[in-house]
Amino acid sequence: MPRILLAALVGTALAVSGATLQGVMRNSLADAGIIGVTAGGGLAATIAMVAFPQLGFLLPPFAFIGACVTSLRLQSFPVFVMQTQTQNTARMFRTVFIPLIGSFPQNRTLFLVPHKRPPVTNGRPC
């Protein structure tokens, strides 16, 4: 019974947070992946993996902090854009370019970090 109640509580919290995000962004299709919050969390987790490879338990806190910083950045950014551009241009920039800007450093970091591969013997990892 406690697991069922916890699952219902978590589902309710996710539904409320999604509806709040869509209401704040005034976009019924907005989610964390479209607006760039996921890219910010992934970038922070990637930085944690590269900077502290032996401390794997730091990945969730780094990802959470990166997502929070990205969402705060997204909330402050449209005010600057709307002073000079139309509201539709600001929405397009928020939904297209912010995730791109967030995912590029993550992919670049993963590309530049040398990967350690296990030795291969007879086509199988040792």
Automatic annotation (TrEMBL):
<keyword id="KW-1003">Cell membrane</keyword>
<keyword id="KW-1133">Transmembrane helix</keyword>
<dbReference type="InterPro" id="IPR000522">
    <property type="entry name" value="ABC_transptr_permease_BtuC"/>
</dbReference>
<dbReference type="GO" id="GO:0022857">
    <property type="term" value="F:transmembrane transporter activity"/>
</dbReference>
<dbReference type="GO" id="GO:0005886">
    <property type="term" value="C:plasma membrane"/>
</dbReference>
<comment type="similarity">
    <text>Belongs to the binding-protein-dependent transport system permease family. FecCD subfamily.</text>
</comment>
<dbReference type="Pfam" id="PF01032">
    <property type="entry name" value="FecCD"/>
</dbReference>
<keyword id="KW-0813">Transport</keyword>
<dbReference type="InterPro" id="IPR037294">
    <property type="entry name" value="ABC_BtuC-like"/>
</dbReference>
<feature type="transmembrane region" description="Helical">
    <location>
        <begin position="34"/>
        <end position="52"/>
    </location>
</feature>
<protein>
    <submittedName>
        <fullName>ABC-type Fe3+-siderophore transport system permease subunit</fullName>
    </submittedName>
</protein>
<keyword id="KW-0472">Membrane</keyword>
<keyword id="KW-0812">Transmembrane</keyword>
<dbReference type="GO" id="GO:0033214">
    <property type="term" value="P:siderophore-iron import into cell"/>
</dbReference>
